[in-house]
Amino acid sequence: MVSSIKGVHELVELCKMHGITRVVVSPGSRNAPLSITLSNTNGIDTYVVVDERSAAFFALGISLALDQPVAVVCTSGSAALNYAPAVSEAYYQKIPLIVITADRPQEWINQADGQTIMQHEIYGKHILHSVTLPVIENNDSAWMYNRLINEAFLKANGNVKGPVHINVPFKEPLYNTVEAPAGKVRSIRVLKQKSILNAATRTLFEHVISDTDKALLLVGQGKSSEKMNKVLEVFTSFNQCVILSETTSNISCKGAITTIDRVIDGLTETEKKEFAPHVLITAGDAIVSKKVKAWLRSNRPFVHMHIGYEHNVVDTYSCLTDVVEANPVEIFEQGAAIAKNNARSTYAKMWAHRHEKIKSRQKEFMAGATWSDLKLFEILLKALPACNLHLGNSSPIRYVQLFDMNPHIHYYSNRGTSGIDGCSSTAAGFSVVSDKLNVLITGDISFY
């Protein structure tokens, strides 16, 4: 049995057809048609989380762990506004969160009816795509209803993933049911072609990187990838190439420097210029380090190429010259095959010397350090076995960046927007669908 309201069964079936098999529901009256239909549909696992703000972060954690789209469903009115923090986090982390909000009939908006607010495009610019579905009254509205849902799902799981909003107005009665209708639901799909190394990118690797004395590869937040590690290790063998990453980059290839703040802190203005690259290649998502951002903005390279799929033009270091919309692993793999070592460069040696020097200083300092937050993190990180480590904002993530990365630990943090509000719920959602040990290190305010 499913809701008697036209289109509800179709919406739920399209969820399954687009790979959405997990839905987090916050109970309410206006979303009852969806709740009823979801609970009676095979192939969809439903989680009930009463608080909408926590529910959305819980869904975000599941999606992050499975790398699959996850839907959240709430009732109308202020309930929808409580999804906003997680929506913004999903936007900047490129997580396919499907936000489905029940709404009152459009004719009753701004007419002093209960739990009725302006829900169309309620999440502003922190959403990839936002639609308000029509009430199905004829063939045209039924076609539009189906098309809008398909478009929204395709946007969420496209080349650049992210959250989408489907707003569904419902008229009473809300609780009537019928047998699920027979017939096939129309699903629209997109076929994606594998990226190839274009002429401009080939020139970058074949000539620019091969001929420069200073090339820096800066990798931001991302998931652990054996293939990425293997490809990047080729570049660490080049005299002119240096790889900088952070714990949340999950890069563990030999030769990569994973402690940016520790290495560049204390550089004199003259040294900052000496260490500055001529060519900068970036990949991955957000970088935690404020120091590296300030350093590159003040010592701009001649070329900055960003590789990856983005919502818009991201010019973090104020020196962007090129964007390659492609899978970074594929581009680096092809680039490594044609790039050449620059025998005259000493750039990699200069960074390696600096890295070892600061690492030795830290070891000496920590040996005599008294009890403190810093000492606690040293003890914790040494004690942890292989696990998924979830880090709260903002102190925990910054302390962890000061210590060498453990290749047996996968690091996660809500660094898309860097908010503290959903750290615990995201970790909880992740742990529900993870077979590994999951550890959360969080600050007191984040925990509360």
Tell me what you see in this structure.
- By secondary structure, the chain is α/β, with parallel strands linked by helices.
- Helices cover 38% and strands 16% of the residues.
- The protein is built from 17 helices and 16 strands.
- The strands form 4 sheets. The chain has a 6-stranded parallel sheet with strand order 3-2-4-5-7-6, sandwiched between helices. Strands 10-9-11-12-13 form a 5-stranded parallel sheet. The protein has a 3-stranded parallel sheet with strand order 15-14-16.
- Helix 1 packs parallel to helix 6, helix 3 packs parallel to helix 5 and helix 8 runs parallel beside helix 12.
- The two termini are 41 Å apart.
- The mean pLDDT is 91.
Arithmetic mean pLDDT? 91
Number of strands: 16
Rg, alpha carbons: 25 Å
The helix tally amounts to: 17
Range of helix content:
25-40%
| Strand order in the largest sheet | 3-2-4-5-7-6
How far is the first residue's CA from the last residue's CA? Answer: 41 Å
Low-confidence sequence ranges: none
Q: Please state roughly what percent of the residues sit in beta strands, choosing from under 5%, 5-15%, 15-25%, 25-35%, 35-45% or over 45%.
A: 15-25%
**Overall body shape:** elongated
Largest sheet: 6 strands, parallel
| Secondary structural class | alpha/beta
Topology:
Layout lengths: L1 E2 L4 H10 L4 E4 L6 H8 L5 E4 L3 H15 L3 E5 L3 H4 L2 H10 L3 E7 L25 E4 L6 H18 L7 E6 L7 E2 L20 H13 L3 E5 L6 H10 L5 E4 L15 H5 L4 H7 L3 E5 L6 H9 L4 E5 L14 E3 L3 H11 L8 H21 L5 H11 L3 E5 L3 H6 L8 E5 L9 H10 L5 E4 L2 H4 L1
